[in-house]
Amino acid sequence: MAINYDEIMSLTSENVEISYTDKDSILYSLGVGFGNDPMNVDELKYVYENSQIALPSMATNFQYHSPLLLKANINFIMVVHGEQKLSITNPLPVSGEFLANAKVIGCYDKGPGKGAIIDVETTINLKKDNTEICKLISTTFARGDGGFDGPASPKKELIKPTGNPDCVHEITTKPDQALIFRLSGDYNPLHSDPNFAKAAGFERPILHGMCTYGIACRSIVESMCDGDTKKLKRFDCRFSSPVYPGETIITEMWKDGNNFYFQSKVKESDKIVIKNGEGELT
Prior knowledge:
By secondary structure, this protein is of the alpha+beta class. It has one domain: Hotdog Thioesterase (Thiol Ester Dehydrase, Chain A, Roll), CATH 3.10.129.10. The chain is 17% helix and 34% strand. The chain has helices at residues 5-9, 22-31, 41-47, 177-181, 194-199, 209-224; strands at 12-20, 79-88, 96-109, 116-126, 132-142, 167-172, 232-239, 248-256, 259-266, 272-281. It has a ten-stranded antiparallel beta sheet with strand order 1-3-4-5-2-7-10-9-8-6. The longest helix has 16 residues, at 209-224. It starts with a helix and ends with a strand.
């Protein structure tokens, strides 16, 4: 069944209660590769409850609790994460109780056989006093759902930084990286089941886009923020190619005042996996 534009644009979820513990924060951090060197004290603070902190990109876990698109008529075998935006209002706690409000803010038709693009915005507030923590916009590329006579996809200007990057940082993923990361909430079999991955057109299970996003966030925090997570205020990007567990992700960064631009590529193939990366520092 084709996408019903009016129906999908009306999808919302309100005041969804979400809670997580310091153990959940540790699990996320392990999922993006922290702790590979247990003697690295800079990494230990993400995976050890003594003076523990949370990586800002962990906020994307909130999106798993408001799965609006499960109510939509789309082919989930052909779905991939297209873009992710994160605006941070207040530092992400390592544990707490929250309220999530989500809504579809855009649905665009790329045409028959070309897919659809769906934007979902999620706002997160502390439950106890309604303090806003962050706002997320997740863009889904539904590769099998174009041709529903919806509005055309708006053109977006590509960001092409010039000159040599100011910082370059690389992180090697482990062969079981996706199997660890999925425990934070994304159980899509595309990342764990070889037969499902092949049916979706991949040679084997791929790394979660949100894991690649978290690894890039690690590189930004370590290289552009001097390890201070509170300095990161905005972190946006487009996913352009999959990563396979075990590959090395190189993130290149360009600074422009309080703004920065970045891209990530796989070391083994030199293929760009994140592009149009941009963000803001305090």
